[in-house]
Amino acid sequence: MSTATPLALLIGSLALAAHAEAPPAPRIVVAISVDQFSSDVYAEYQPLFRAGLRRLGTGVVFPAGYQSHGATETCPGHSTILTGSHPSRTGIVGNEWIDQSLPRPDKVVYCVEDPAVAGSSSRNYTVSPQFLKAQTLGDRVKAAWPGSRVVSVAGKDRAAIMLGGHSIDQAWFWAKTRFTTLAGVTTPAPAVVGKVNAEVATELARPTPPKLSEACRSHSAAVSVGNRTVGILAEHKPNDSLGFQTSLAFDRATADIAIGLIHELRLGEGPAPDVLSIGLSATDYVGHVFGTGGAEMCMQVLGVDEGVGRILDALDATHQPYIVVLTADHGGLDLAERSRIHGMPDAVRVDPALLPANMGKALATEFNLKEPVLVGNNAFGDVYLASDLPAAIRVRVLEAARARYLAHPQVAAVFTAAELRRTPAPSSPVDEWSLAERYRASFDPDRSGDLIVALKPHVTGLPSAEPYVAMHGSPWNYDRRVPILFYRPGMAGFEQPLAVETVDILPTLAAQIALPIPAVEIDGRCLDLSGGSGDRCVADGNR
Ligand code: ZN
User: Fold this and answer.
1) 75 within 8 A of 112, measured Cβ to Cβ
2) What is the DSSP string of 282-328?
């Protein structure tokens, strides 16, 4: 008699016992992304949380989640959260990239535009998921169970689309003066959208006087940046759209629409699990316009805490089993001026000489070429050789450009596309990846630059980028590290301080609803949330 049989029986009965204790599978899967909510911001303000963020903190907490890639921007970051894939697989290498073959004057491509639409440009576009090369959780759920509903609501269009994917039933995002949906949608808008848009119109038209909570008083201190002062609350002027986007009203309106859709669509009551993604975008605008260390960010994260609490209350009210994950598309860094006041002597602003147009000038002289020689929008990240450079000298110009960047004291590393293409997939934990490995994870041979420039740590933001005073987008951990919080009512929570990745979210959520994900299609790993009983990753073959 073989000994394998009793052992297999034993394992089988243990698995059955574990499954018997397991809670019912979620009927609503919810992903909340808080734009620019770094692990550092989460840690700094955590003692102040009283509502939703505090409740999520009783679940499974990964304080060191990683947006693993180098190009830590909004569109790439959101593309990882529900696809299980790095930007190298989603194709979303930046918020924008350059396509010099486009038959239009504007060669900049916006990540959720459709350039095939007549008159499209990166600034005036029709929103589309067509650049997203990967399937989202919503796409996969919809393919498995056509009766599922996929709902995506966000402040930013790129957040709504990258979280929702290719088969969204309800997409709502902010466009200049109101929340809107995809072009060509003919079904009537849910009632909540009209209601929220009317409230927002009233909100926009009136000034909002500053109101500082007692909890944020210790964060209120003035810092001078150029001719502005940040760190203390200021009044939002009427009809100021950036003022609205940095106010508590912006995320409140986004959450109101999400909550309204939970009720109106009776999420969780359909024939199969529904997927709801919510992008709370205001934290990013607050971070850019005021930095992360002042009264403005303190008030903003308290607003997120309250908004997430209201979303959880609405989910509770469905009486359906649900699971929530909350994370961020990237981290961020405070403005250099306050970082220096707060004991970080090497925090500086980037030298405008590093802009591709300026670097290209010297190359034009050196090689006797007409400008532009280098194309790109930023003083770091993707830099492209002008497509009309003669083939015979392209390699020499590329090497000369690399040498010029490397000679600059603010530059940490420069990679060519060929180098990144040859870089093998990393095998070490994500917090130990090399710079080349980080940039490889956001490299797409058709969309990335010919050179990728990494600045040294704590070098951020052009001096002339007003009203933005603080930036993200670097390959450094303050921009990569984001909290990942999983929460299901009644779950036994724990905290795991070791590094995990945002690409782990998709297989982890899929396992909760027994949706198989072929490992070869994604980069992430399923994380066991059970705390020891009934590992869904094993049960559903997602690991
Ligand atoms: Zn962002």
Assistant:
1) yes
2) HHHHHHHHH-SSSHHHHHHHHHHHHHHHHHHHHHHTTTS-EEEEEE-
**CB 335, CB 469: distance < 8 Å:** yes
Distance in angstroms between the alpha carbons of the first and the last residue of the chain: 31
Q: Is 74 a catalytic residue?
A: yes
- CA dist., res. 454 & res. 470, Å (int): 17
Question: Given a cut of 70, is residue 9 above it in pLDDT?
Answer: no
192 is written with which tokens?
Answer: 């909540």
Q: How many residues can be counted in the chain? A: 543
Mean pLDDT, residues 417-422: 97
* Å from CA of 469 to ligand 1 middle: 15
- Which one of the listed residues 74, 90, 181, 283 is annotated catalytic? 74
66 and 466 Cβ atoms separated by less than 8 Å: no
pLDDT single digits (tens) 381-413: 999 999 999 999 999 999 999 999 999 999 999
Beta bridge mates, 370: none
Q: Distance, CA 33 to ligand 1 centroid (Å)?
A: 9
Expressed in angstroms and rounded, the spacing between residue 5 Cα and the centre of ligand 1 is: 53
Q: Which of 378, 355, 358 is nearest to 472 (CA)?
A: 378
Q: Residue 501: which of 251, 327, 288 has the closest Cα?
A: 327
Distance 539 CA to ligand 1 centre (A): 35
In the reported structure, the alpha carbon of residue 330 is separated from the centroid of ligand 1 by a whole-number distance in angstroms of 6
Q: How many CB atoms lie within 10 A of CB 310?
A: 16
Is 543:537 a contact under the CB 8 Å cutoff?
yes
pTM flag (> 0.70): yes
Long-range CB contacts for residues 475-479, cutoff 8 Å, separation at least 24: 475/69, 475/70, 475/71, 475/72, 475/435, 475/438, 475/439, 477/331, 477/431, 478/38, 478/40, 478/331, 478/332, 478/333, 479/38, 479/67, 479/72, 479/330, 479/331, 479/332, 479/333
- What is the percentage of the chain residues whose pLDDT exceeds 90? 88
Q: Is the peptide bond before 47 cis (omega within 30 degrees of 0)?
A: no
Q: Cα–chain-centroid distance for residue 332? A: 11
167 half-sphere exposure, CB direction, 13 A CA radius: 18
Dmax (CA) for the chain in angstroms is 85
CA–CA gap between residue 475 and residue 68 (Å, rounded): 9
